[in-house]
Amino acid sequence: MEKFSTVNDFDYTQNEYIDLVYEIMQNRKRGEKPVAFIRTYGCQQNVADGERIKGMLEASGFIFNDKPDNADFILFNTCAVREHAEDRVFGNVGALKNLKAKYPNTLIALCGCMMEQKHIAERMYKSFPYVGLVFGTHALHQFPELLYKALSGSKRVYLRDNDDNLVHEGIPVKRDGSFKGWLPIMYGCNNFCTYCIVPYVRGRERSRKSSIILSKARDMISSGYKDITLLGQNVNSYGKNLKDSLSFAELIKEIDDIEGDYWLRFMTSHPKDCTRELIDVIAQSKHISKHLHLPFQSGSDRILKAMNRHYDRQKYLDIVNYAKSKIPDVSLTSDVIVGFPGETYEDFKQTLSLIKEVEYTSLFTFIYSPRVGTPAASMDDPVSDEEKGEWFKELLSVQEEIASKRCASMVGTTQKVLVESEKGKDNILNARTSGNIIVEAKGDKDLIGTFQNVRVTKAGNWILKGEFIKEDN
User: Fold this and answer.
1) Cα separation of 301 and 96, whole Å?
2) Quick one: which H or E segment has residue 11?
3) Could you give the count of Cα atoms lying within 13 Å of 107 in the half-sphere of its Cβ?
4) How far apart are CA 166 and CA 64, in angstroms?
5) Of 274, 295, 333, 440, which is most buried, counting CB atoms within 10 Å of its CB?
């Protein structure tokens, strides 16, 4: 495993801490090699962060286990976007009390977005004294140093709120997959939607240099990655903080020009930064997925203004309609919040009408969850949880009908798919179209990680079933 480089702003002395951690763990490990257990919650950016943490641990001599019982190091990489995710973290950390008592040398740690919130970090410190290391998103590049201090000292190590507004390059990565991979191109967010905690826990927008991104993309393509997703909290505002930078549309065009057999995806897009230039690039591309994830959150202009989304319903529909006109069979997906503070049923009906007009492939739907420190958390919210729940069920029913109709329209077509995994028994494999729709088909597991053609034979509400088409010899 390649260790840290001196590229950009990264403190290359972290290599020394990697060596020190390696030495300490030779005396603390329970087995032949030190074992780490990593559990990541939340978005794809968190998953990408987890891959960098694993890269640093692997460089320190660790191997990995999917259960905490035998681990010498246990880390929860947390998400702060929804209350449910936070509750799960507290529950899982609480369940480790007996394990820590049985194996005192086991180091328990937490990192990620939750840990950048002061009230959460304070609760963790007071309520879970057996947690020895806590650090936020801005300290990831210091992980070897923090791990060394937690292993070698008697005091617990807590570090948060230390944003230096830099992008730290050269951190080793241990990817979770061999043919699907994440490629972060920027970090942070400047939008400050009133419901969202991300700008407070991830900091301001910071873009990676395009030369580094292009080099990483070439490396992934030459290594056989078939599905590459560019990541950012607001991915299509890429480059705005860099001098003489490529725009996001220019960046993905440059990646698309790289020869190879792969699909290129990106998320998450903000409607205010989704340009016609970007849509034109997608339409003319060889590798870019014909799938556009464009969160609209609400169909009501009044609620969109209260959310601080910087667009209205008509502007959003203009983008969608342009995409439909330029990209045949474009697959549109989105995020929707139900029950934002002050939302009325009339506002909600406007959301339903927008869903019916656009006809999304699928939706990520959420009932509003207040986040401490955001403006929306202090807004009047007179609608009961029970009523919001009824709205939520109504929305799901509308979207299910739309998705079912779209899936039914694909029966009889031939789709190029990337085979991703075994479903279970009977040799059924899960595959995915360029438009991000799951197709189940019977086949040998050797097909996993390859592109295949599938004839769609049956449609469900959300997925397709089909048969692999054998190529003539």
Assistant:
1) 47
2) none
3) 27
4) 30
5) 274
Residue 85 near residue 41 (C-beta atoms within 8 A): yes
Q: How far apart are CA 17 and CA 147, in angstroms?
A: 8
* 3-class DSSP string for 239-262: CCCCCCCCCHHHHHHHHHCCCCCC
Domain residue spans of the chain: 14-159, 180-409, 414-468
> In terms of Cα–Cα distance, which of 362, 355, 357 is closest to 332?
362
Instruction: Write down the residue that tokens 């990192």 correspond to.
Output: 111
Work out the percent of the chain whose per-residue pLDDT is above 90: 88
Beta bridge partners of 292: 332
DSSP state of 209: P
CA distances (Å), 104 to each of 16, 98, 143, in order? 26, 10, 21
463-468 long-range contacts, Cβ below 8 Å, gap at least 24? 463/407, 463/437, 463/438, 463/439, 464/407, 464/410, 464/411, 464/415, 464/437, 464/438, 464/439, 464/440, 465/439, 465/440, 465/441, 466/415, 466/439, 466/440, 466/441, 467/441, 467/442, 468/441, 468/442, 468/443
pLDDT higher at 470 or 277: 277
pLDDT of residue 12: 65
Q: What whole-number distance in Å separates Cα of residue 206 and Cα of residue 239?
A: 8
- Look at residue 9 and tell me whether its pLDDT is greater than 60: no
**Rounded-to-5 percentages of helix, strand, coil across the chain:** 40, 20, 40
Q: Which helix (H) or strand (E) holds 312?
A: none
Identify the H or E element spanning 430.
Answer: strand 428-433
Angle formed at CA 319 by CA 317 and CA 321, multiple of 5 degrees: 65
Distance separating alpha carbons of residues 464 and 138, to the nearest angstrom:
41
Pair of tokens at residue 33: 């090699």
Q: Which CATH class is domain 180-409?
A: alpha beta
From CA 222, how far away is CA 28, in angstroms rounded? 39
Pairwise CA distance, residues 374 & 386, whole Å:
23
Q: How far apart are CA 422 and CA 447, in angstroms?
A: 10
Asked if the model's pLDDT at residue 7 lies above 60, the reply is no
pLDDT at 2: 40
361: Cβ–Cβ under 8 A, 6 or more apart, which residues?
A: 291, 331, 332, 333, 403, 406, 435, 436, 437
User: pTM of the prediction?
Assistant: 0.93
Stated length of the chain: 473
Concatenated DSSP letters of 107-120: EEEEEEGGGGSHHH
Tokens standing for residue 369? 């969850």
Q: What are phi and psi of 225, to 5 degrees?
A: -70, 130
What are the beta bridge partners of residue 467? Answer: 442, 455
Q: Which two tokens stand for residue 185?
A: 């191109």
pLDDT at 176: 93
Task: Please give the class, per CATH, of domain 414-468.
Answer: mainly beta
